Amino acid sequence: MRVLIRIPVCVAFAAMLSGCGSSADHPTSPTSPVACTAAITIGIFSNGAPASPGQGMVWTSYFQATVLPAQPSVYVVDINSTPAGCLTTWTAVSANTSAVQLSPASGTGRSQVELFMPANAGTQRSTLVTIAGQTASITQAGR
């Protein structure tokens, strides 16, 4: 009866091999995704023209200091995630979707969110909107 014993080369010839079992012998594991820091700014207004003077302004500052008109409005909000290559997922949530609708509801890294406010035929209304972890109270005038 024969018994076959296998001994790894690294163990059998450790004295003769340099670097046996070192990390250089094994591929490194992939690096984990880079965490993002989001700077959220006003992109463009509903008419497609640059949001002047709001363009580039921090979105929370703009919306919290402005009562928006009662007519329907669309705003594009830029999510400027840094550093380049960041892969952190973000969400866009409206506390009252009849007052403010957001699209898309989530994404990864750099992107844009469209903020749509339907016409308001009632009294002035406010709702909280959170994009990429930053919250603003958005107020729309009534008619």
List its salient traits.
143 residues; mainly beta; Immunoglobulin-like; 5-stranded mixed sheet; 4-stranded antiparallel sheet
Write up this protein.
This protein is mainly β and about 140 residues long. Helices cover about 5% and strands about 35% of the residues. It has a single domain, classed as Immunoglobulin-like, CATH 2.60.40.10. The protein has helices at about 10, 60-65; strands at about 35-40, 65-70, 75-80, 90-95, 100-105, 105-110, 110-115, 125-130, 135-140. The model is unreliable at about 1-15 (pLDDT under 50).
What is the element layout, followed by pairings?
Blueprint: H1 9-12, E1 37-42, H2 59-64, E2 67-68, E3 73-82, E4 89-94, E5 101-103, E6 106-108, E7 111-117, E8 125-131, E9 134-140
User: Helical proportion?
Assistant: under 10%
CATH classification class: Mainly Beta
| Average pLDDT | 78
Order of strands, main sheet, comes to: 2-9-8-4-6
Question: What overall form do the CA principal axes indicate?
Answer: elongated
Low-confidence stretches: 2-17
CATH architecture: Sandwich
Encode the helix/strand succession as letters.
Answer: HEHEEEEEEEE
Structural class: mainly beta
CATH superfamily: Immunoglobulins
Number of helices: 2
Count of the separate structural domains: 1
CATH topology: Immunoglobulin-like
Question: Brief overview, please?
Answer:
With 143 residues, this protein is mainly beta. It contains 2 helices and 9 strands.
